[in-house]
Amino acid sequence: MQTLTVELGERSYPIVIGPGLLTDPQSYAGHLGSGRILIITNDQVAPLYLDKLQSALSETDCSSIILPDGEAHKNLETLSLIYDRLLEGRFGRDCTLVALGGGVIGDMCGFAAATYQRGVVFIQVPTTLLAQVDSSVGGKTGVNHPLGKNMIGAFHQPRAVIADTGTLQTLPDQELRAGIAEVIKYGLLGDAEFLLWLENNIDKLLAREDQALAYAILRSCQNKARIVAEDEREGGKRALLNLGHTFGHAIETLLGYGQWLHGEAVGMGMVMAADMSRRLDWISQQDCARALTLIERAGLPTRLPAGLTSDDFLDAMGHDKKVLAGKLRLVLLRALGDATITADFDMAALHATLEHYCRQ
Amino acid sequence: MQTLTVELGERSYPIVIGPGLLTDPQSYAGHLGSGRILIITNDQVAPLYLDKLQSALSETDCSSIILPDGEAHKNLETLSLIYDRLLEGRFGRDCTLVALGGGVIGDMCGFAAATYQRGVVFIQVPTTLLAQVDSSVGGKTGVNHPLGKNMIGAFHQPRAVIADTGTLQTLPDQELRAGIAEVIKYGLLGDAEFLLWLENNIDKLLAREDQALAYAILRSCQNKARIVAEDEREGGKRALLNLGHTFGHAIETLLGYGQWLHGEAVGMGMVMAADMSRRLDWISQQDCARALTLIERAGLPTRLPAGLTSDDFLDAMGHDKKVLAGKLRLVLLRALGDATITADFDMAALHATLEHYCRQ
């Protein structure tokens, strides 16, 4: 078991990583509010882990709500179901919400916790690799709007994140690979040494070797925690974490949420960001190929679905939060392991990248 | 013109009070985000002030959304209209939301600002006395749920509050009186000197004398700002501001939002809190009568509508946020000008008060 503390002053919190944590009552001790507990989960995760979590929390007054699974349900309507449950159950301001599931559950549970009675305690129990390395760190919470992803949300830090690596053994292959996309992102954006480790160990991750997974989660969380601690409210440096996301969000918007997994869209987004960086001559053809190869070896898509046009794509990118004062800002690569956020690039390179991938 | 600063570290903001501020471009200078502006107002206020505000902001890219008026529309559905407008208009994270109207508009606009893209700038231009002395100070934002008032919300501080006293000349009598209820609240809960001033000047307030109104707003804001600065996130002392509110919210819940104005319910709630404090022998019969008389002189209701039962009332109070760990906490009076929040009271006094007012 390893513990990492995300340093945010009075909002600091631990991320605990290891096998068997979910079923251990000690994992939750000291992190719960004084009142009742509502576990928020979905219909895929509940059959696997809800009973186990409830047993671990059996000392407390604990109930649960099971939501439909998937990004398509990460919206105000599903959020309303949580509010209804909390109010019908008369949960007080001293309650604790526990997110049991992937990033979608974490984001919705976190936003419910941020806004129920203007803020209650919440704990994350992420059961996907993506949630363990990404959405459980940083305090971003929210839901989608038909016109854009994560457009409605708040910053709200969890009291603790319990990342049980054992839950990854039941994860579908596609979701494991989507999680690995975010892991690769940390290497690409700012940790060349980790990128090298990934090139040497990607097969172990795909084979779900415990030690490799735990190391990848720890190193990813360390990378993310360092960046978030420096820039909690996303003024500057934190935006680097969006490597692959502006392209990725556009893909999700165009396809409709739920077609591709978020991590798959981010993986494809990183391919496009690397390609554009190469066209700008910021990275070499060789480095671009290294990035592409690693993403390919992770079993992630490296081509867009047929039927997208570069005009639609550009339009969808305009709805992204990274558009500041009408100017498109992108996270691009200065080198492998060194990303930068900038609005200062030749639009021709963007057009060429979009044309290339939309025509493939 | 007077300026009061609410001291909250990096979230400090000015409340500017005086006639003619709404139409003066200078009022907004330095407080706007770098992006576009959306004015959020309602169908009662828009015909009176929207053109004027837009003229004052004419240097900037400014548009507006006009919502239906009233507490009954302070809900997730109306909030969605704001999100839709922002996303359809492609408002960026650098936008500014301006609340033009009363407390309902301020609360909804503030919550939209707290949650749109995880937080954007907002400015309050309150046009009711209630909003000028209450909801524009303290950063509370939110919407109602069918099962409880303000149950969904966030703390989000405005960048500035522009309280134009001139707008009170067009305020309906009933709304003026509802605002005076909150003004009286500040005297009752912690400012005996101000309470005396109110007893001597209540007729001037009702006659809308400029100087009296400006003084009452300033003193109320000073009282509230002092308490909020000590307790931004409502851990303890801030709860004193809920004098009359637990009873009042129950009234609003039982009648359905929109039957009584919020200030009227609070006025009635203060009558009940004073009555209960007298039954507990915490204040004298004389002091209780003083409070009742002032509230009566302000033209506020001092009786409940027919048909409420004390059981329903108690049940509705159970949904209030002030219920901590299942125990009902109330703000009661130790003396005129000295309120306390406590769960340590004889329930018989509460029952007697409810029986008395429900049977009247």
Account of the protein in words:
Chain A is of the alpha/beta class. Chain A has two domains: 2-170, 3-Layer(aba) Sandwich (Rossmann fold), CATH 3.40.50; 173-359, Dehydroquinate synthase-like - alpha domain (Dehydroquinate synthase-like, alpha domain, Up-down Bundle), CATH 1.20.1090. The first copy, chain A, is built from twelve helices and 13 strands. Chain A has helices spanning 46-56, 76-88, 103-115, 129-135, 173-190, 192-206, 210-230, 245-255, 262-279, 285-297, 310-317, 347-359, and strands at 2-6, 13-18, 37-42, 62-67, 96-101, 121-126, 140-145, 148-155, 160-164, 323-324, 327-328, 330-335, 338-342. In chain A, helix 1 (46-56) links the parallel strand 3 (37-42) and strand 4. In chain A, helix 3 packs across helix 4, helix 5 packs parallel to helix 9 and helix 9 runs antiparallel to helix 10. The first copy, chain A, is globular, with a radius of gyration of 20 Å. Chains A and B meet through helix 2, strand 7, strand 8 and strand 10 of A and helix 2, strand 7, strand 8 and strand 10 of B.
